[in-house]
Amino acid sequence: MNRPANRDVLLQPRPPSPLQEVRDERFERHGVRLLLKRDDLVHPELPGNKWRKLAPNLRAALEAGHERLVTFGGAYSNHLRATAAAGRLLGIGTIGIVRGDELAGRPLNDSLARCAADGMRLHFVSRSRYRSKADPQALPLLLEEAGAAGAYVVPEGGSNALALAGCADLGRELRGVTDVAAVACGTGGTLAGLAAGLAAGQRALGVPVLAGGFLSAEIRSLQTEAYGGPVGDWALAEDFHHGGYARVPAALEVFAADFAARHGFPVERIYVAKLLWALTTLTGTGTFPPGTTLTAVITGRP
Ligand SMILES: Cc1ncc(COP(=O)(O)O)c(C=O)c1O
C-alpha cells in the first residue's frame, strides 16, 4: 500500500476549531448566550470527535510500528467510516468488524461501500460474536477469525483512554469562554474527555442519543480507565433520545431543518439535532439561569 508523505500533516495538532455566537430568540429571551463550537470543521475527512479520538490512537499505532488497525461498528457507523478514511490517508491497512452476519454477501449500504472504497476489509459477525469483543478472553479469537491478529485495536466508537485525551483538548479550547459545554453522546467518550479538559467551575452536559439510561456508568468507567476515577463536573440530560439510536421523528426533522436554515450550517441528524433540540427545550424551561453562556459542540456533519 502507498505510504503518503503527509502522515505528519494528518497527525499534527490542529488549530482550535472555530467558536461562533448565534443570535436565536429562543435563547436570548431567557438571557442565555448560545455559542457553537464548530468541531465539524476541525478536519476535512475526520470531522469533530472522529479526529479528536482517532488522531492520538493513530499516532500511538504508528509509533508502535503497526501498519494495520482493526475496529468495530454497526452497518451505519460513522466511526468505521472515519477509521477507513484515516487508513487511506495514512497508507495503512484497516479491518472493520461489522455487527450483523446477515449483511455478509449482500450489497453494501452507502456507508459500508465508502469504507470498502477507502480500503477497509469488512468482516461481518453475528450479534453474539460481536458482543464478545468486550471479553478480553474471547477477543483474540475474534481478531484471528477476522484476519486481524496483531493489528492495533481501536474500540467501538473509538472511545479509549487516548481518545479521552484527544477530547480533553476540546475542553481546554473552551476554558474561559463558556459556563456549560454540551455534547451529544453515543459511547460517552467525547463527554468523558471534554469534562476532564474544562476548568473548575465549568460544567459539561451530555445528551445521550440512545435510550437505556446506562451511560453514566460507562462514562465513569471510561474516566476511571483514563484518569483513575471520575473527573470534571458533568451530567446527562436523558430525555432527548427521541425513541432511540437513529430515530428521527418528523418533529425533530422539522426542528433540525429550521435550525440549519436559521443559522446557516448543516445539522447532522443522528447526534447534533438531538443535542440542539435538548438545549432549546432546556433553555425554554428555565434550566439555565439568565446570564449563562452555553456552548453546543457540533461534533459532526451530515
Ligand atoms: C457526530 C457525532 N456526534 C457525537 C458522537 C458521540 O460520541 P461518543 O461516542 O464519544 O459519545 C458521535 C459518535 O459516533 C458522532 O458521530
- In percent terms, what proportion of residues is strand? 15-25%
Number of helices: 12
The SSE order reads HEHEHEHEHEHHEHEHEHEHHE
Strands ordered across the widest β-sheet:
1-2-10-7-8-9
Helices and strands: which structural class?
A: alpha/beta
**Ligands bound, unique:** pyridoxal-5'-phosphate
- The shape, in one word, is globular
Largest sheet: 6 strands, mixed
Mean pLDDT: 94
Straight-line N-to-C gap: 30 Å
Report low-confidence residues grouped into runs of 5 or more: none
Strand runs, count: 10
| Cα-based radius of gyration, to the nearest Å | 19 Å
Helix proportion range: 25-40%
Describe this structure in words.
With 302 residues, this protein is α/β, with parallel strands linked by helices. The protein has helices at residues 7-11, 25-28, 49-63, 78-90, 110-117, 127-131, 139-145, 161-173, 189-197, 215-227, 250-263, 272-284; strands at residues 19-22, 33-37, 68-73, 93-99, 120-125, 152-153, 180-185, 203-208, 234-236, 293-297. Helix 9 crosses helix 10 (215-227). It is globular, with a radius of gyration of 19 Å. The mean pLDDT is 94. The site of pyridoxal-5'-phosphate (PLP) has 17 residues, from helix 4, strand 7 and helix 9.
